[in-house]
Design brief:
Layout lengths: L1 H19 L25 H18 L2 H7 L5 H7 L4 E2 L2 E2 L7 H24 L6 H31 L3 E6 L2 E6 L7 H25 L5 H29 L15 H24 L31 H23 L1
Antiparallel strand pairs: 1-2, 3-4
Helix pairs in contact: 2-8, 3-8, 3-9, 5-7, 6-7, 6-9, 7-8
C-alpha cells in the first residue's frame, strides 16, 4: 500500500512539475497526467499513469456521498436522543433506546435478498437498469425521506407533550421529560435508512471495487470508508454552526425538549436533497470502466520507475544455461582454494 501511494503522489508531483515548465513538440498536446509518462518526457509507465486517471475519475463519485454519512450518523446520535424522550416503559420492561437500531439491521437482512432477486431483475425486465450510480442516488433520496419522517415524529412528540401527554422517565440514572408517544413510532425511519444503506453504502463499496484496477482496489476501498469519516466530521461542524446561528433559540441543544430538532432534521433533508442533485450531475457525466480491458502491471521497482534488468524477463532456459556456465566455474575456484 505504501509503495502504491508513493507512486501516485510521485506521478502527481511530476505531472505538476512538468506542466509548470515551458514545453515543446508533442508534449504540448499531452494532458496533465500524461506528462508523467515516459513517451512525454516523464519517468513513469503509461499503465501507472492510467491507474491514477482512474483514481481521479472515481474520487468525485465517492466524495459525492460524504454528506450522506452525515445524515446516516443520526441513527447513532439524534435518533437516540429523540427516542430517550419517548415512552420506553412497557409494564415492568424498559426498552433500551439504543437497541432500536436493530430494526435497521432487520431491514438489511430482509431487503438485501429481495433487492438482488426481485427488484433489480424486475427493473431490468422493464428496461430500466439500475446502474451503481443510480442506486446510490436513489439511496440518498431515501435518506431524505427518512429525515422528513423523523422531523414529523419530532413534531408529533412535542405536540403530545404540549397537550399534557408527558411523564418523567429515568434512563441510566438520568431523568427526562418524555412524551407518552411510543418509541416504536421511530421504526419506519430506521427501516427506511436500512433500504437507503443497501442502495448507497453497499453499492458504494461495490462501485469502488469494480471500477478500480486490481492494484488500486485497496486504495479505493479505503477512500470509500474515509468518506464516511468525513461525513461524521461535517455533522459535528454543522451542529456547531447551526447552534451558533440560532443562539438563544438553539435547534439542537443538549436538552432537545428545549430546542427545535425538527428544524435541524428538515435542514439535513434539504442539504441531502441538494447533494443528491449534485451527485446526479456527477453520475450523468461519469463513464464506467470497461472491464473487458485490463491495465497490465509489468514488473517494477518500489516507486514505479522502469528497471533495466529483471530476472522475470528472462526465459527459464536462459536461466538454466546461465546456471550451467556458472557452476563449473564455481567448482573450479573451490578446488583451487582447497589445494
Amino acid at each position: 500500500m505504501g509503495s502504491i501511494l508513493t507512486r501516485i503522489f510521485n506521478i502527481l508531483g511530476q505531472a505538476i512539475s512538468y506542466s509548470c515548465r515551458s514545453s515543446k513538440g508533442n508534449e504540448e498536446s499531452a494532458s496533465f497526467l500524461d506528462r508523467a509518462m515516459e513517451e512525454h518526457g516523464g519517468t513513469f509507465r503509461s499503465n501507472h499513469v492510467e491507474e491514477v486517471k482512474v483514481l481521479a475519475r472515481v474520487m468525485p463519485v465517492l466524495f459525492g456521498t460524504a454528506f450522506y454519512a452525515t445524515v446516516y450518523a443520526q441513527m447513532q446520535s439524534s435518533f437516540v436522543l429523540q427516542g430517550a424522550r419517548m415512552n420506553l416503559v412497557y409494564g415492568d420492561f424498559t426498552f433500551p433506546v439504543a437497541s432500536l437500531s436493530v430494526f435497521n439491521k432487520i431491514s438489511l437482512l430482509l431487503l438485501i435478498p429481495l433487492m438482488d432477486t426481485v427488484v433489480y431483475p424486475l427493473c431490468e425486465y422493464f428496461g430500466f437498469k439500475l446502474t451503481q450510480l443510480k442506486r446510490m442516488g436513489f439511496g440518498m433520496f431515501l435518506g431524505t425521506i427518512a429525515m422528513v419522517g423523523a422531523a414529523g415524529v419530532e413534531v408529533s412528540r412535542k405536540n403530545i407533550m404540549d397537550n399534557g401527554g408527558y411523564k418523567e422517565q429515568i434512563i441510566a440514572n438520568a431523568s427526562y421529560n418524555a412524551s407518552t408517544m411510543s418509541v416504536f413510532v421511530q421504526i419506519p425511519q430506521y427501516f427506511i435508512f436500512g433500504a437507503s444503506e443497501i442502495l448507497t453504502c453497499n453499492t458504494r463499496t461495490e462501485f469502488a471495487y469494480s471500477e478500480a484496477p486490481k492494484v488500486l482496489q485497496g486504495v479505493l476501498l479505503g477512500v470509500s470508508v474515509f468518506t464516511g469519516a468525513v461525513g461524521n466530521y461535517i455533522g459535528s461542524l454543522l451542529v456547531i454552526v447551526v447552534n451558533s446561528v440560532t443562539k438563544g433559540h438553539e435547534w439542537y441543544p443538549d436538552e432537545i425538549n428545549d430546542g427545535y430538532l425538527e428544524r435541524y432534521y428538515i435542514l439535513l433533508a434539504v442539504l441531502l436533497l441538494v447533494n443528491t442533485g449534485i451527485f446526479a450531475v456527477i453520475g450523468h457525466y461519469y463513464t464506467y470502466v470497461d472491464n473487458s480491458v485490463t491495465i497490465s502491471e509489468p514488473p517494477d521497482n518500489e516507486i514505479g520507475y522502469k528497471e533495466d534488468i529483471s530476472f522475470t524477463d528472462m526465459k527459464i532456459d536462459e536461466l538454466i544455461s546461465w546456471r550451467d556456465k556458472v557452476l563449473p566455474f564455481k567448482e573450479k575456484l573451490l578446488t583451487e582454494y582447497e589445494m
